[in-house]
Amino acid sequence: MANRVLYVRLPCNPIFPIGVVYLADHLYKVFPDIEQRIFDLGTIPPLDFGAALDRCIDNFKPNLLVFSWRDIQIYAPVGGRGGNPLQNAFEFNYANNPLIKTRGALGGLRMVSTYLNELWRNTGLIKRGFKRAKRHHPDAKLVVGGGAVSVFYEQVASMMPKGTIVSVGEGELLLEKLVRQESISNERCYIVGETEPRERLIHEWPTPVEKSACNYNYIEKIWPEFEYYLQENDFYIGVQTKRGCPHNCCYCVYTVVEGKQVRINPADEVVKEMRQLYDRGIRNFWFTDAQFIPARRFMDDAVELLQKIVDSGMEDIHWAAYIRADNLTPELCELMVKTGMNYFEIGITSGSQELVRKMRMGYNLRTVLQNCRDLKAAGFNDLVSVNYSFNVIDERDETIRQTLAYHRALEAIFGRDKVEPAIFFIGLQPHTHLETYAIENNILKKDYNPLAIHLPWVANKLLWNPEPLGSFFGEVCLQAFRQNPNDFGREVMDILEERLGLAPLEEALTAPIKSKAPPKQPELIAR
Ligand code: B12
Ligand code: SF4
To answer: Of ligand 1's atoms, which has the minimum distance to the CA of residue 144?
Structure first.
């Protein structure tokens, strides 16, 4: 039996390592007698990573080494760890001034080197840890998982030592089997150098696990650095209230990582978990669900949870989440405000109903607008971030004008300063409809490597911004970076409006049904 389990969360911006916390909590509930330890490299200064890992392994002597890798893609449009990747890419691709072009190229190189360094550093830490653990237990096992590994599970094989178990999605049952030393052949995983990932492994459904409140009395015993996250007041500590998302949005991989089947964690257990954190001084929570209210049929569950939070008397808390704002009622809005929601993100992607439909998102923009009015009427007066990705599929001047009209309507509801337009350019991810579309349309080769963003011809395509509108957006973004880098999103919207004008709102809200409509998805029919 593997009875000494060490969880190493690989270096990461300080986001609460909820994944390893849940895994350790689960194993404790199944095997109360095994020894476990959490070691979070997110709390260690970079120069000390290797030595601190060695010390931890020498002290604890694990025979099951669990590495959790959260994120790999640092080239998101917001200021990433290597600088602002969107600005670099656009300066390099679209700037007319050669000096700015060069600055973009240099910035891009800096970003690429940060990215490659992180890949090498993390794989180096995994190899180093494995070697060290084997000094104490020659038959120690190594398993890697987490968000980054789930998305890029096919690519990480070449970077891992032989024998590494590479896991996709949630890891509770896999770890249970590893502790018992049972066969793992039915789990969503493969072993480097021994087995190949099954075809469409990521599309396999996770086995539902009934989630109970995480036992933080236990977690603080096995995680000496837990305190770190309790000291700062502004951390949003992760609490998961459900898993899975039933939608099919064309660019999204969550729905395959977590699966389409939504599994609700019992509301009493969620509140019990929050209570333990509350009693330790935590006031800010992030509901880490792919979507807090994934579809209308889950609205009652959200009501139940929020009502139980009200009943619990935790009055001075705040929470944030990804919210599909088409699934709200006035009652839900009131509960959201009453329970302290002070930030949410809506990923409508476009304010044009026609494009929202083409991206298979299943949103009704008119409903979203009405629900936002209800939220405002319920007293919501905080920040909402609205994600737009221009130029995804079939974008035209006309649809841009519609998005602008839609955004102005949101501003009219919440106030300009309360609606943050987050301008994303979709990072093309494996296993998404958009990837299939790109391959079918010869934009990407079938054997492209989604991690090879250091190759400019791959990077350009993975940051989805195809011509003919690509250079137009490049130019608009560069102007916005120049004019008002601190309020980039709003500046982009203003420049676009100056150049293209606004459509009537009604036009944004109505999508003419054309003969070339996308294939109907069961979920879209359901709503
Ligand atoms: C909520 C969320 C956020 C929130 C986090 C809020 C908070 N305070 O926690 C916010 C909005 C802040 C956020 C930000 C970002 N995120 Co985010 N986020 C998510 C999301 C939706 C859920 C993550 C989560 O906490 N899940 C709940 C916990 C319990 O699950 P978990 O940590 O994944 O752990 C489970 C499994 O992964 C597994 N597991 C974990 N480790 C291990 C190890 C082993 C060995 C095994 C077997 C299993 C295993 O078991 C765990 C329990 O079931 C995921 C997408 C998704 N649906 O998974 C993206 C995701 C993790 N994010 C991602 C990224 C990239 C980011 C950003 C870097 C984006 C950016 N460039 O700005 C930022 C910055 C993050 C940072 N480090 O600074 C990527 C990471 C992969 C990648 N592409 O590189 C993901 C997967 C989304 C995606 N489309 O690819 N994010
Ligand atoms: S609703 Fe959100 S989580 Fe679900 S598939 Fe669409 S983008 Fe992904």
So the answer is: 45
CA of 240 to the centre of ligand 2 (A): 16
Q: CA-to-CA distance for 230 and 225, rounded, in angstroms? A: 10
Most confident listed range (33-42, 151-160, 254-263, 503-512): 33-42
List C-alpha distances in Å: 415 to 30, 230, 253, 409, 410: 50, 33, 32, 10, 8
- Residue 421 in tokens: 């337009």
* Predicted local confidence at residue 424, as pLDDT: 79
How far away, in angstroms, is 216 Cα from ligand 2 center? Answer: 30
Report which listed range, 13-27, 86-100, 198-212, 245-259, is most confident.
13-27
The edge-to-edge listing of strands for the beta sheet with 4-9 is 35-40, 4-9, 64-68, 141-145, 165-167, 189-191
Task: Summarize pLDDT for 302-329 with one digit per residue, the tens.
Answer: 999 999 999 999 999 999 999 999 999 9
Phi-psi region of 169 (alpha: psi -120 to 50; beta: other; left: phi over 0): left
Interval between CA 427 and ligand 1 midpoint (Å): 15
Report the C-alpha gap between 174 and 189 in whole angstroms. 8
Q: Report, in this order, helix, strand and coil percent for the chain, each rounded to 5.
A: 50, 15, 40
Which tokens in the block code for residue 304? 């139940």
| Gap between the Cα atoms of 86 and 296, Å rounded | 35
Q: State the SS3 of 195-216.
A: CCCCCCHHHCCCCCCCCCCCCH
Cα 302 off chain centre by: 21
Q: Is the pLDDT of residue 520 over 50?
A: no
Which residues, judged by CB distance below 6 Å to any ligand atom, belong to the binding site of ligand 2?
A: 245, 247, 249, 252, 254-255, 290-291, 324, 347
Dist. CA 374–CA 384, nearest whole Å:
14
CA–CA separation, 508 and 454 (whole Å): 38
Region 290-307: mean pLDDT is 96
Task: Say if CB 161 and CB 126 are below 8 A apart.
Answer: yes
Is 359 within 8 Å of 406 (Cβ atoms)? Answer: no
Q: Which segment of 137-146, 352-361, 459-468 scores lowest on mean pLDDT?
A: 459-468
Cα radius of gyration (the chain): 23
pTM greater than 0.85 (yes/no)? yes
